[in-house]
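Still learning. Any example?
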Amino acid sequence: MMRVCLTAFLAVAVAGAMVADARADGRLEARYRMSLGGLELGRAALLIEVDDTSYIASGSGRLTGVVQAVSSGKGTAGARGTVRSGELAPRSFAMEAVSDKKTESIRLVMNGGGVTDMRVEPPVFPSPDRVPVADKDKKGIFDPMTAALVMVPGTDDPLSAKACERTLSIFDGRQRYDLALSYERIDEVKAEKGYAGPAVVCRIAYRPVSGHKPNRAGVKYMMKNKDMFVWLAPVAGTRVLVPFRASVTTAIGIAQLEAEAFETRAVVGTRATPAKAGLP
């Protein structure tokens, strides 16, 4: 469930915009607070740069607050790819997560047809109660980080219902699932540092495809959950919308991710080459 929530929270849009004959690229540095029922659970950071032909993104997170007293945990993730004909084409994804009980890592290599190479540690072993991942489930997909990058095509204002008119097909190395977005409304948001202004709110529906265990209570709960939302805010100089806030109603309270800092600027004539997002 946490993997699904984080993917939804990190949905990002990418598009190149031209200024005269120069390249207009965008950069975002954001820091988020994660909470459950008002109690802080963790901190996360996101760093993105994009131009008209490519994108690269990195993120990091760690447990904090009362949870840290029970279990330590931190992780990093990154993805890169190209922008072709107004669509994102992922090329690579990497994720590492470390807790006091285990270490997990995932590496995916992709082309236009889907996943061409992958490494998952620890490996996923066959189980009678798990829906197997078929070869077709690894085609026409986004990795979790790129799934967060949602391009808004056209010339109209990106802050519109068009931002939510999509279904994200995701393969994370272990599971294949869809996140179906639908338009709710336009809201106003304000960070302590950086952006203040409108955001488009999308409702999210979780649809598992394979790699999951259908009889698990968490899977059933998420499939029926009607209270998952993401607030998307713009990146300067682009037609990009990035999650500013997200919320998921759980059995023990509302899980929320919200930007405390959301600093974005247009970068003209510079290719996307950001450093990694530092651990918050």
In short: Confidence is low (pLDDT under 50) at residues 1-24, 271-275. The two ends are 22 Å apart (CA to CA).
